[in-house]
Amino acid sequence: LHNAKPESQLLQNSKESELDTAEDLRKKLCQAKREKLDLTIKHNQELSNYESQIVKLRSEIEKGEAVRQSLEYELAIARKDARLKMYAAEQELSDAKNKLVELQVLNGKLHQKVAETEKMFHIAQQKWQEQHQRLASEKDDIRRTCKSEYELLLKERTKLENSKHVCKSWLEGLHLVNCNSELGYENAEVGMEEQNNTLQNMHKKMKDVEVEHNGCTELLRRQASELEYSTEREERLKKELEAATVRVKKLEENIEAERAAHLESKFNSEIIQLRIRDLEGALQVEKASQAEALSDLEMIKKEFKEVENAYEREKHNAQENLKKLNALERECFSTNKQMNEKIEEKKVVIKDLTQRLGNNEKAFRELQEQLSMAKKHQVFLTETYENNMRELELLLDSFAMSGQRTAGTCKDKDKAARGSVLETLRCTLTVYQNKLEDTSNEHWTKVTFYRVEFLPAFLFLASALQESQDNLADANKELNHLHTKCADRETLIGTLKMELQNVQQCWEREKARATESENEIQKLTRAYQKDMEEKLTFLHSLYQRLVAGCVLIKQPEGILDRFSWSELCAVLQENVDALILDLNRANEKVSHLEYVCKNKSDTMKELQQSQEDAFSKMAEQMKAQESCWQKQKKYLEQQYSGLLGEVHARAQEYQETAEKSKEKICVLEKRQDILALENVSVKNTLTQVQKEHSSLLAACALLAGALYPLYGRSCAMSSQRDLLQDQVNIYELVNQEIRTLVHALSDAEENNQDESKLKKRKFKGLIHVFRRGVIAVLAANRLKVLAQSSTSLFSWVNGFKEGIGILVCIGDSKGKRNLPSREEEQIHYVEALSWFTSSNLLAAIISSVTELQDVVNKTDPKPWLSGHLLVSAARNSFSKLMDKLNVIMETVPLDGSRSVTYLEKDSLVERLARGLHRINTQALEAGLCDRLPIMKSIASLQKQIFEFTQRLHTTEVERRSLRLKLAEFKWNFSEMKKEADKAQSLQEQLNMFKKSKLITHERFESACEELNNALRREHQAQVLLSEQAQQLQELNNKLELHSSEEADKNQVLSETVKRLSEAKMELRRKDQSLRQLNRLLTQLEQDKRRLKESIRDAESALCVAAKDKELIISHMKSVEATFHKVRDQTLLSWTAATRNDFTLQLPKLHLETFAVEGMKGRPEVVAFQAMIKSFMDVYQIASSRIDMLMREVASHQLQTTALKSKLQTACLHETESLQL
Hints:
two-stranded antiparallel sheet; CCDC171; CC171 protein; coiled coil
């Protein structure tokens, strides 16, 4: 027992130690399991966190991709905007360059004008200097001649005084010698004769000196009048220079306006730069393209800077030109004769203005045509755009799912971006593609599962999958093609918008030009009114001057054809002033002649007294000189006999020459008669040719007015045909794409059709090929027949409008025969020649246009009645001409093939249509997809999309069931967690019992068993937890996929709804903008009509003014012609008279008044007639005064001749008495 106790104690100790070790090991196991659980929990938490993070990152990546796509789309839009703005900036640059070129051309013209004015100024200055030098030299010569003649007169006076003294001394010597020597008497007679000769020479020289003195005074007066005229010209030149400065200022204002426009374009380019910089911050991928854009913009800046520098240069040049013009103004004070040159410059300016008006009218017409074409193009584009958008919306509505439609109803108010409909289509197609890929993957898994049992079915399905993948690839390609087409359409829409904006800008410019033209017309009317007032005041002042003044013979040279109204008035005023000056000169001459006559009468009396004294003294000397006179008489008789012989010989020669000249005159008269007959015939032919020319011109004008609108309509119809053809092509492409989509989305069973159907399809295809060949052969035969029966000469095609032409045919042609090509060409050439030179056509044209010619040649005082008559006559003549041309052109033989009606029942067209209908019905019955109509293909598409929606509904039901299973798994997992918590609590109780050491062996074993059971349960729970965790992961993955798909679908649907709403808003905005544009266009057309009416009124007023001016000018020319006749008559009378006989006879002057009835009551005409009447009165008074003076002069001359005869008789008596 003592040994058993220690052994039992040892055993108990060993058991206790083993129990302690077991408890320690269990504790360690529990701790390890706890640590393992903690690690697994942490691991699961980290996994869930990481998975959530991965999901977030994926969502962020998808958001980033969506943002990237949106940014790419915005970037593409920005690129398009930038390109459009670059294009606009380039266009503005090109416009600016063109304007620069025009300004340079204007500057060059101004430089040329300045150079010409400088040259003319230098020439005028040289002429003035030369004239000044000539006048100075002439003055010096006149002074020298006067001095020399005065010295000669003094010398002759001294000689006469000496001779008088000698005679007196000689007479005293004779008285001393008592007159005995005959030699002394003869010497005295010779001295008397010498004295008489010297006295006569002195009188002649005095008269010549007086005449020269009068000529010098007249030259000085003329020079004074020329100086006054030069001062007036200087004032006019100053006014013209002021007008030129005003024009230069206007040019500077235009340059500043263009510079402001360039600054605006520069501001727009800077805005584009800022937008590009903002896009650079958002999109780092597009840095290279943005750098290129920045470089392009820098180049544009450089070009703008160059343009600004060019503008500054032009401005500097303009300032220099202004300085030169100011210098020229200062220098022009010394110019005298530039009126003709200024008239030429004014003519050039008028030509330039007319050219500019013509250019403006051409530009206005071109802009009208461009506006009409832009309107048509815009209407067509809007219609095509609306149709495309409607078709796409219909397609989207038919393809859209229920969720998408509900989302679209909620978010209609959001603003949409461009191309939203196309993006919705793309998103729906991508969704369908993803669903197809998912279904294909599921199908592939099922096939792999049942591969062993259903191998042949698997192979069949694999082939079907490959075909479906190929079809999907084709569909993707077609989608990409559609995307490219949509992008091209968007670019086209943007370009069209820019074109519309450009057209609006051009229209605004034209409106501004029209307003400027109205202002210019108002200015012209004001200037015309001022001019008329100036004319009236001038004529009134001229009338007063003529009433107060007098008239002389002189009249200046008239250049009335080249002058304007103001210049004509100035010339007339100068002529009247010159006439008054000439009258004053004539009065002065008359007074001077009276004074000279009085002096001469006094001198004659003195001479008579001195001669009587001398005769009494010289009677003895005359006897001595008588012998000498007889000798001289014999000598003179001999000389006169010789001279008489010469005179007789010359008279015979003159008689012979006179007879010859008479014969020549007879020959010339005969030639004159022949030429007169030829002239009459030529005049008749010329009148006939003029009639034909006027009739042909009127016919050409009518035909041109009828042809060009027809040509415009044909152009518009061809453009509309092209647009309709484009629409038809687009419609066919859309139909073809719909058929391809139907074919791609159709079931696999339809792809595996029978061989019989394939054979039928081949057979039907061969039938279609045969039908095409038959139709081509028929068309070729018809074209051949038409070519044989055609009478066309050539066809004209416009270079700018390709494909639009006019066919020119020949009339009076007999059609083409079956002849070789050379003979046909010869016949064609002969027919063309006969048509171009046909007398029937000319007679028809002349006879049909006679009524119009009568109306045109008739001058009606009432223009409104003549306008109605002209329109009615033109209408009647055009109808006659068309009737006659119809008669002439109907002589062409028409082929019978042209008159066939193709709408008969048994016609070839009807037969072909029936056959095509029969073939198409057979193809539809056979089930051929290629010949299906578009409505059936759309219906099949709708069915397939409905099937897709049903599949999506089933997938959603499966997703909901999976969510319910996941909730059940989560509930089981929570229950397992509760059991694990109970096991942990039991383990803690067991540990407490062990510590208390009150546990029996049975309890210990039961506790061990419970612990073992708990461990097994824990193990099973862990296994179940791991399996549930795997299942949860799979379910989470599936849920994430479904959630991502749902999010994508929701995003796509929201985007599509937004884009659809935005597209609708844009369409509404476009409709509003189109309505506004139509209103603007109607307003602009109304403004245009008003402007045209105002321009017509102004033109009519200008035409009336021009006609009045022409009438007044013609009347003034007639007055000038009468003045010229009077001057010529006076010159002839002056030349007919001798130098000694100063008889001046003024002819009678008859001036006619205005014969036109419309001009009689006007104030300028009344003033002009009053001036003419006053001039006639002054002329009559002057002529009567001159006649009186000439009579007095003639009476004085008769008195002088009587005194001379008395002196001669006295001298003869004295000589006879001396001889006796």
